Amino acid sequence: MWRGPVIERKRSLTNALKWKVFTIHAKLIAMAAQKWWDPDKNPTLLDAIEKAKKANVPNDNIARAIKKWTWEDKSWALIQEIFYEWYWVGWVWIIVKTLTDNKNRTTSSVRHLFNKYGWNLWETWAVSSFWFKFMWVILVNLNSKKLEDIEEIIIESGADDYLLEDEGQVKIIADKQNMWATLKFLKESGLEIAESSLEYIPQNFISITLFDKAAKIIKLIEDLEEDEDVEKVWHNYDIPDDLQMQVIEAIEKSRFRT
């Protein structure tokens, strides 16, 4: 069964990170609205709006994001997706997806962060097409159920894999070609879909056991989380739970001293 790291750092949403969540959703809405601004005629825009509402993005923010492509807002700018693929020692890879209205600004910012921690930029699609698979990831809320109660449904849906997530959720992974059929089957079977998206799934994981290496990776991920243009980050490293906690505690102590 596919397995990702048992835990990722769960940081509280500071005002800055909340602002970033709102900004990313606004960009997703604006990018979808570039094709057509009416959600009743644009399923991608409708999906972007629904996801923004689930993230508690205010209605005013959603309306402003749509206006950016109806010519009512003269400050509009074309939003585009840009992917960056980075390599570190020991076959460790990170793929970064950005949403930006200024490619030069975003490239400079992302390049600065990775250079800071000693990573090397790789040719786009060289990593993602060989070391990862682009798969449909569906998060299902268990509510009062147990994983055993819905395993048969998951298997019958045509999913490739599944695993128990924290906070009472099951992560289901399906081939991109079967994603709509899988999603429809799960919904019609009465399961509650919390989220669904296309994600890069690594073919294997590289175990990180040294404190210094783990610290550099975790600090890099923190910096990426705070960059306003970074939407998603995928990786193939696996840091043991106890080592993650040691690094996090050390980072917090360092911040407190400063």
Brief synopsis:
This protein is α+β, with helices and mostly antiparallel strands and 258 residues long. It is built from eight helices and ten strands. The longest helix is centred in the N-terminal third of the chain and has 19 residues, at 15-33.
What does it look like?
The protein is built from eight helices and ten strands. With 258 residues, the chain is an alpha+beta fold. The chain folds into three domains: 15-67, Orthogonal Bundle (Arc Repressor Mutant, subunit A), CATH 1.10.10; 80-129 and 204-257, 2-Layer Sandwich (Alpha-Beta Plaits); 133-200, YebC, transcriptional regulation domain (Alpha-Beta Plaits), CATH 3.30.70. Strand 1 and strand 2 form a beta hairpin. 26% of the residues are buried.
Second-tier CATH architecture of the largest domain: 2-Layer Sandwich
Strand composition percent: 15-25%
Through-space gap between termini: 43 Å
Helix content: 40-55%
Compressed to H and E, one letter per element, the order equals HHHEEHEEHEEHEEHEEH
Biggest sheet character: 4 strands, antiparallel
Give me the secondary-structure category. Answer: alpha+beta
Q: What's the overall geometry?
A: globular
Write down the CATH topology of the largest domain: Alpha-Beta Plaits
CATH class of the largest domain: Alpha Beta
Q: Kindly report the spatial arrangement of strands forming the biggest sheet.
A: 3-1-2-9
Number of helices: 8
Query: Overall pLDDT, averaged?
Result: 84
Could you list the spans in which at least 5 consecutive residues all have pLDDT below 50?
1-13
CATH homologous superfamily of the largest domain?
Answer: YebC, transcriptional regulation domain
Tally of DSSP β-strands? 10
